[in-house]
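so i finally got all the pieces together for this one. its two components total, 756 residues if u count the protein bits. some of the lines might not be protein, just check the labels. i wanna see the whole assembly predicted at once instead of chain by chain like last time, that was a mess tbh
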Amino acid sequence: MSSLSLFLMTTDILERFYGVIPAGGVGTRLWPLSRAAAPKFLHDLTGSGSTLIRATYDRLSPLAGERIMVVTGTAHRAAVCEQLPEISDANLVLESEPKDSAAAIGLAAAILHRRDPETIMGSFAADQVVGPLEVFLEAVREAVVTAATGKIVTIGIRPTLPSTGFGYIRQGGRLGIEGAPSATDVAEFVEKPSEEVARRYVASGDYLWNAGMFVAPTSLMLQHLEANEPALYAGLCEIADAWDGPERDQVAARVWPTLPKIAIDYAVAEPAAAAGDVAMVPGTFTWDDVGDFAALGRLNPAAENSKLKVIGEGARVYSDNASGVVVSDSKRVIALIGIDDVVVVDTPDALLVTTQEHAQQVKQAVEALKASGAVDVL
Amino acid sequence: MSSLSLFLMTTDILERFYGVIPAGGVGTRLWPLSRAAAPKFLHDLTGSGSTLIRATYDRLSPLAGERIMVVTGTAHRAAVCEQLPEISDANLVLESEPKDSAAAIGLAAAILHRRDPETIMGSFAADQVVGPLEVFLEAVREAVVTAATGKIVTIGIRPTLPSTGFGYIRQGGRLGIEGAPSATDVAEFVEKPSEEVARRYVASGDYLWNAGMFVAPTSLMLQHLEANEPALYAGLCEIADAWDGPERDQVAARVWPTLPKIAIDYAVAEPAAAAGDVAMVPGTFTWDDVGDFAALGRLNPAAENSKLKVIGEGARVYSDNASGVVVSDSKRVIALIGIDDVVVVDTPDALLVTTQEHAQQVKQAVEALKASGAVDVL
C-alpha cells in the first residue's frame, strides 16, 4: 500500500474513534483530599492547572474532537459539567449508583453502537496522569488502527519499576498491521504479582502494566460482553435502546440497579484474550494512576532548596529539616519541623498524617472511619 | 518552743502570706496551641478540666485565701477575669507591655508593701503543673516560715532527669529553722548546664531545679531590687505610690514603658544569694513547666491500647500504628497512620507536625513565621 493510501485509510479509521471516560472511582487512598463528594478526578494533582478529568478530556480531543462520552455518578453531574462545559447532554452518562467498570464501559459501548455501529471506542479512566501528549496520541492511533482489524486493543505501559499494585500483560508476537507497527498479540493477562515476581516480569521485558486502557469496535466489545455476562448485556441493551428516547430515565432507573457488578477485565478483556481477540500496543509515555500520596510526591517537584513537595494553591507551609509531601486544601499555616518522608494532607474538616511508606494503608483508615460512623468526612 | 507556741507563731506568719501569679509568657514552644492571644496559662494542658492559671490560683488559695495578686498583660484581662471571677480589681495588675519578670514581680512587691509592709509574698508562675497539693503546700509553708526569718526563699525542685532546659540551685547547709526543718542555705545559682554537667548535678544529689518560685518579705525583695536595679526600683515605686489612688493609669502609662527589662533571677535572686540572703526549701512534689509538646506527652495519659496521647475536648482521632502526641483544638477528624513519636497540633488556623525529639525547635519556627509576616497565626 502506498503511504498516501495508508494515510487515507488511517484517516477514515480515525474518524470512527469515540473517546469514553469512565469517571467513577473515589480514590480512597487519597483521602481526605479525595472523597465521595470530591473524588480524585476532580482535583488538580500535578499542579498543571487542570483537574485530572479536564486533562483526560484535553488529551483525547486532538483525536476525538467533541466525540467524547463521560460516564460518572449523578452526584458529580454539576462538577463534571463545570470542568467540561463543552460536553453535551447526549455525551454525559450518569449512573444512579456505582456498578463497576463492565456496566459503565458496556453502557457507553451499547449507546455508541446504536448511534453508529462502526464506532471504535477508546476507554481512558478520568484519574490518570499521562505525558507527553504526542507519544500518547501515537499509541492511541496505532490502537485504533489495530482495533479496526477486529481486535480489542489494550495499551500496555512499559514498566518503570516492579510495581505490585498493577496487573501485567504478557506480550505476544508482532501482528504486522500496516499503520500499527508496534501492535502485538497478548499472551496473557496476569493479576497483581508479588514483588519477586514483579521483578522477574520487569527484567524479562515481556510484561507491561495493565493500565485499563481499551480501544475496540463497540460491536466486538458487546459480542464478548454478551458471551460472558449475558444478564449484564441484556440489561445494558434495554437501557441503551431507550437512551436516546423519552423513556431513558424511567428505563435506566428500573434496570441499572439490577445490573451485576463486575470489572471489565473479567467480563471482557480476559475471556476475549483467551479467544485470541485481544491485541496490545505498548505505551512508552509516562503514566501514573496517582494511586496514593507517595505517587503524588513522585508527580510533583519540590521547591528549590527543599526536600518537601507542596501541593495546593495558596499553601502556607513553613518547613525546617522536613521531607515528604504536603497537600494543603485549606488556608491554614502548616509548620513541619524535623520530620522525614512525612505525608500531611490538610483539608477543612479532616487531617491525615502518615509516611510515604504507609501511603497505601490510607484505604484501611477510610474503612475504619466508615465503620466508626465518621461518614461526614468520607 | 512548745509545739503549741510553734503552731501559733506559724499561724501568725502564714497570715502575712500573699500569693503573686505572674501570667506573662506566651509559651512559644507550644505554638500553635499557645499564642499571643491565647497563651499557655489559658489552656488546660493536662486534661484536669482547669486552665493552668485557674489551677495555680486554686493551689495557692488554701494558704492565701483571696490574698492572691495576678500580674498579666492588658490583652488578657477579660480571659483572666473569666478564669478567676473572684479576683478583685485591686489584685489584678495589668502590664501595657511585657517588661520581663523583675518589673512584674517587683511591681507586685511594691504595691503589696505599701498596703502592708509585713507582707511575705510568694511568686508562682501561672503556667506550671504541680502535684500533689499537700506536698506543695507543705513546701510553701516552710518557705514562708523561713522567709519570716529574713530570707528570700526559693523552692527548688528535686530533679527527676538531667534536664538541660532549667537552671539549677546548689544546696548549702541546713538552717535549722523551727517550723521549717528542710530549709537550707543556697550555695549558688547555676545557669542551664550541658547534658554531661546536668548528669553530674543530678547524680550528686546537691543540685535542685530552679523553678522560679520565690517566697520573701516584700521589704527584702525591694531592698535587693533597689541595690541592684535602682532605675527599675525608682520607676516601680513611682507607679506603686500612685497605684491605689486616682493617678494609677496616668502614672503607669507614663512610667511603665520606660522600665528596663530584666529577669528577677539577675535583678534579685543571684545578687541576694551572693549576699547570703537566699535560702532554699526543697520541693518533693512533681513539677513541670510544660516547656514543649514532649512535656505535654509526659503529662497526659495514653488511651487504653494506644501509644498515642490525645489532648483536646471532643477530639476525633483515628490512629493505626502511631505513637506520640496529638493536640486537637479543632473539630476536625485527624487520622495518623504508621508514624512514631509524632507531634500533631491542630488548631483552626495553623497546624504543626513535628516529633517529640524536635519539640524544642518550635520556638525557631515561630520566629521564622514572624519574620515571614505570618503574624495572623502567632
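Chain B is about 35% helix and 25% strand.
Chain B has a mean pLDDT of 94.
anyway lmk what u think
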